[in-house]
Design brief:
There is one protein chain. This protein is an alpha/beta fold and about 400 residues long. It has one domain. About 40% of the residues lie in helices and about 15% in strands. The protein is built from 16 helices and 14 strands. The strands form two sheets. Strands 1, 2, 3, 4, 5, 6, 7, 8, 9, 10, 11 and 14 form a twelve-stranded mixed β-sheet that branches. Helix 7 packs across helix 9. The longest helix has about 35 residues. The protein starts with a helix and ends with a strand.
Length: about 400
Amino acid sequence: MRVSKYLPLLLMTSLLSGCASFGKGVTEALLEKQTADDTRMCKIWGKAFTGISPFLGNRQQTMKVLMVHGVGNHLPGYSTRLLEKLADQLDLPVMSSANKNISLTSSFDNSKNLGNLRINRLLSRDRQRELLFYELTWSSITAKQKEILAYDNSGEYAFRRAEVNDLLKKFSNDTGPDPIIYLGDSHNDILVSFAQAFCWMTKSNWQDLPTDAHQACSFNEPAAAVNLRNDQYAFISHSLGSRITIDGMQRIAGLINSREVAFQDALKAKEIPIYMLSNQLPMLQLGRGLPEVSGQSTEYCRPNGAKYNQRMLSKTPIMAFSDPNDLLSYAIPRSFADKYLDSRLCADVTNISINVATVFDAFGLGKLANPLDAHVGYDNDDRVIALIAKGIGNANTAAIVKNRCNWVEAVD
């Protein structure tokens, strides 16, 4: 009697438990399938480019790459994942036993702390191929001003929020102020920090770099011009770091005077690519005036142009990576580049629209991707790393790019 009385309840419980397990199994299987069948988009519009790989084997020059971070607090070593994946893609399994750190400061005021420059040396097994990787950490410049918001992260206010909202608010307090601060009093210090990093790149090779020094660098030293002419350079930037890189190069070109004519001439002959991750140039242009020179690329960038000798660089190839699901990332239309990028940079833009965040089918509710992953996931995407390392449209292009990316080639 008792058993028969509770039998329907037991059967219902068993069925519900089975349905829950079945539903969980279906959900996990579906998510695993969507992850396993990686169909994330990769679409490229632009000219062929080589990446940094071809410049590693020449013993007469050194390939030097500078990483510039974006918004938020960063500590030295933040680019380690990108560095290790890049080393693997370039077959550089040998690394210096200790990195070198330079506490950046100003030539005019040595009391200033303008961030940290960390340098790693990567080599092939036979020591014939070398890469120097420079990591600029400038966020200490803005950290002091962001302390104004520190009270909002304290328990006095944080406990009143839902857990997820509290995490989002702390993220907002860390990242949101940086673009505002960059346009304020700290603007010049951040650009000096970038200039100092670039100066150390040009002035010194591995054996000449100081270790754990608080020291300023000068473009006026003869070695800077010699190395700039001989070595190869590239920038990798993320979000606000792209704006800093563009502004920083324009500032350097404007500061070079007759005393540094050799450096100026070497800069004019140089092609320096910029790999922009989570590109934000269009958004960060808001509220700014036009560059000093715009809409005149023909006059400045073609050998027969009337102002060819007044250019900053021979060419600035820009590879603009953006995930469509990144709420803070944008492509660079040709019209934007012509109007809002200084013509003297001779910029040539390739747009790369790529899903670095996984897009899921939200069970009939539509497609879904984590916008935070879409903003910060570039350094963990093998296609991004392969494009930086080996480019596209050349004999050295990585298989993952050939197989997983669709390229629309641009021609003049």
